[in-house]
Each structure stands twice: as structure tokens, then as C-alpha cells.
Amino acid sequence: MKKFKMPTAYTLLFLIIVVIAALTWIVPGGQYDTKVDKASGEEIPVAGTYHQLPTDKQTPQGVWEVVNAPINGFFDAVDIALFVLVIGGFLGVVMKTGAIDAGITRVIRGLKGREHLLIPILMTLFAIGGTTYGMAEETIAFYPILIPVLIAAGYDALTAVSIIAIGAGIGCLGSTVNPFATGIASGFAGISLGEGMGLRIIILVITLIIAIVFVMRYAKKVKDDPSKSLIADMKDENEKHFLSQKGEDLEFTGKRKAVLTVFGITFVIMILGVIPWAAKFNITIFEDLVTGLGKIPVIGKVLGGLIPLGDWWFGELTMLFLVSSIIIAFIYKMGEENFTSTFIDGARDLLGVAIIIGISRGITVVMNAGGMTATVLHWGEGALEHLGSVAFTNISYLFFLPLSFLVPSTSGLATLSMPIMAPLADFAHVGRDIVITAYQSASGVINLVTPTSAVIMGALAIARIPYSTYLKHVWKLVLLISIVIMVILSAAVMMS
Question: What pTM does this model have?
Fold first, then answer.
């Protein structure tokens, strides 16, 4: 009998679209009355106003919608997809210089048997990014960089994925000031961002420690015995693919140092660009700088309409990596033809990732078009309304788990659910900050594993890891973290 083989990520995601479309024929479509939130300008649902759509307005998704879902999903996610392609071109140019390989050699030599220290340091840094500004899609740029470092150090690609995905994911799970999760949810719940901060810090610290121990144990097992790797069968193939200059001791020349300097500065600018300094933290240094430059005669006109750091998103980030790739090509004295062909080849390497991102977004397209989201939310509203405080808190967390699968966007889930869930907390004598913590924790847990997350599926595509293998790797961690979160939430409610 032929052994069953897990389908590729493309097929798996398309099958999920088919299943969701089929459910739209079973789950009745509905909607809430909405109102415009003054602070955000978003339309938000009003609790208690759900109504099922009449039969003639039901929109079950058929074959046409299923086939179109990946296309429409790609249109919805075109900014992320283009960002990924330009990242591919940028990395192609950097790799062509040999700077990464020379730098890897220098790093490994410098650590001298202490490579394991990379794991807690990097996971903590990624967690800081996640908890402060919701670092998620931005991590896509780090996978092609870290994977060769970890493989060269004797680990595997799954270790690298774990460091980035779990590290940043834990940060999002324990969001403290993340404006795209905690910030939006707090606004819709009508409370300040600071409420519940202590509880969120506790969750962040405890779950990060658990995650670091989990990854370090797996990494040690792989390094001690490479056959224990969950992707041991891909060891030789991955070394050939990711260590392009394996066997060569590349000289760390001045040009390569300059390339890595530009490389590092690019990522620093990226991080500075997406943290909402003025909007959320009232730090206006970058706005003031742009305003000052704009007032300089002639120079202000030449520079054009600069956008200050803190207001950047995928359009500006894509521009950043494109400009940086040109600067690196200039430093390394690549010719125009060499540069363009190298850039295109690099973009081609991540084309599959861009397609996966589009298909992932297609799942949400079908779900929203079929009217399922409001109905699922309504079921939760009815089930949670009359529970005690501890039961309400834990069931709210459990309710947010499947809802997070259907709506992987933290900001989208907050916009959709918080105007309804926050008032329900009042009836259960639970602080609204507890509901926010339950929401962001559940969303963070699910986004560690959900195939509807373009970030996870894109990362696995870059690392060439089957989704089933990744799931086998993290399911115990996810279960343990969920139990720990529920215990912490219960204790917080009982002590309040």
C-alpha cells in the first residue's frame, strides 16, 4: 500500500477554502448593525443587534467563488506579496556578494561552541518586537538570513523557524503595547492601553521562558544527534540549498563589511518605520524631522513628500529594501545587468511564498463573503452572556481560539469582536482588560500554528518544511501554553 503523503501547502490551503465554502451552505449568513467608531473611523458591530439574513440574501459560496478566492486573496494581500518578492530580490543581491556567508563564518568562529546562546537572545528580541508593535509579517525578511546561520552552527531549519515564529508569536501573544492588537482592542473596549498591563507582562515572561526552553531542548537534541531532527531526511539537501558557499572560507573584506552594515541598517530602519511613535507613544521626533526638512528651501522640494518613521507600512518597507539593494549593488560594484538579473532571480526564489500568502488570504475572503463570521460571533455572544466570572474568562479564551482561526488578523478580530465581547464582560463582573488579554492570547496561540496565517505558511515555504512536520513539532508547546494562560487568567479574575 502506498504511504500517505501530506499534500503541499498550496493544496492544503485550497482544501481549507473548499471546506469553508461548504460550511457557508450549512452555517446561515448573518450580520450585526454597525456604527462608526469615532476614534478609528472603523465600522464596528453593535452587541445584541445580530440578525440572520433572509433567504434571498444568503450568500453560500459556490464553485466560482472558490476558484476566485485565491485570486481575490492575492489582490487583498498584494502589498505583502510584493514586499516578499522585493525581499527576495534584496536577499539575492546580498547573497551574491558573499557577505552573509563570510559573516556567518565569522559569527560561528566567534561563538566557539556557544551557538546555543543565539536562541534565548534572538527569541527575546523577536518577542520584544511582537509585544511592542505586533511584529509578524516583517519577520518574513529574517528567515532567509537566520536559517543558514543555524544550519552552519549544527542545527536545522526547523530550529531557525522556531526561533523567529515562536519568538515573535509569543510577543504577540503577550502583547503589552502592540497597537494592532491591544491598542485597537482597548479602544473598542473603551479602556486605556495601560489597563491589564501587569497581567500581560506576566503572561509574556512566563510563556517566553517556556518557549525558549522548548526550542533549546529541541536544538540541543538535533545538534547532539542530527538524526533526531524532524527534517533529518532533508539535511543534505538543505545544507546544499541554504549554504550556497559551503566549503569556501570567504574573506571578510571591507566591501563585505560595508554590505553587512547597509544590511543591518536596513533592518533597523524597518523596525523604526513600523513602530507608531507619534500615534501611540506621543514621540514626535520623526514628524518634527520631516517637517523641518520640508521647510528647507529647494531641498524640501527635492526630497518630496517624505513619510516619517512610525507611519510606514508595506509600501514604504518595499521601497526601503529596493533602495538598499541598489546601494549594496553600488558598493559591491555590480554592473547594471548583473544587478537586475540577480535581483529578479532572488525575487523568483520567493515567488512560491507570495502565492501562498494570496491563497491564505483567500480563506478569509470566502468566509466573509459567506456571512459566516457574524453568525459564529453571535453564537459565542449567546453562550457567554450568563456565565460566572472564571467560567466566562476561560470560555471567552476558548471561544477566541476558533474565531482567531477564521480571522487571523489581530486588528480585524479586535474590530469585529471587542465591541460585543467587552460589554458582555460587564455582565459577568469581569474586567474588560481581562477580555482583551484573553482575546490577544488566544489570537497569538492560534497564529503560532494556523494555516490561515500567511506568516506561518510563508515561513515554512522559505524553510522548505512541510506544515504537518511543523505542527508535529509545536502542538505540545501550544497545548502547554494554552493551559498556562488559562491558569493565569483564572488567577487574575479570582484575585480581582
Answer: 0.69
